[in-house]
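Hi all, long-time lurker, first post. I run a small reading group and we've been trying to get comfortable going from sequence to structure in the token notation. Rather than ask abstract questions, I figured I'd post a concrete chain and ask someone more experienced to write out its structure so we can walk through it together at our next meeting. Sequence below, copied exactly:
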Amino acid sequence: QVQLVESGGGLVQVGGSLRLSCAASERTLSSYAMGWFRQAPGKEREFVAAISWTGVSTRYADSVKGRFTISRHNAKNTVYLQMNSLKPEDTAVYYCARHRTVWSPASIVQGDYDYWGQGTQVTVSS
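-- Answer (accepted) --
Happy to help. Here is the structure in token form:
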């Protein structure tokens, strides 16, 4: 059973930055694409960013393009989400997820991911 643990969330002012981390319990993380999703109160969970298993290809939601950067460090079995120029509308619980298929490309589809972390809260105050 793969376990994903997010960290790095917190309270930040508008325009500030945070870096989220997602650590996996198994070393097989390096063979899978990874994604970040978020869910704001009263809203559906939505795609934020994804990275292919090689780390070469990335995809972003339009709302975060140019502000967020997804990266991975396979030797540390960790995926990151660097969030800059944060806005109040970025407030949400952020989840990382592992793609269900080995050697997978970056995907924006939630159904393509089978293991999810417990989430970390990000709150942006104005």
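A couple of things your group might point at:
The first strand starts at residue 4 and ends at 7.
The chain is about 0% helix and 50% strand.
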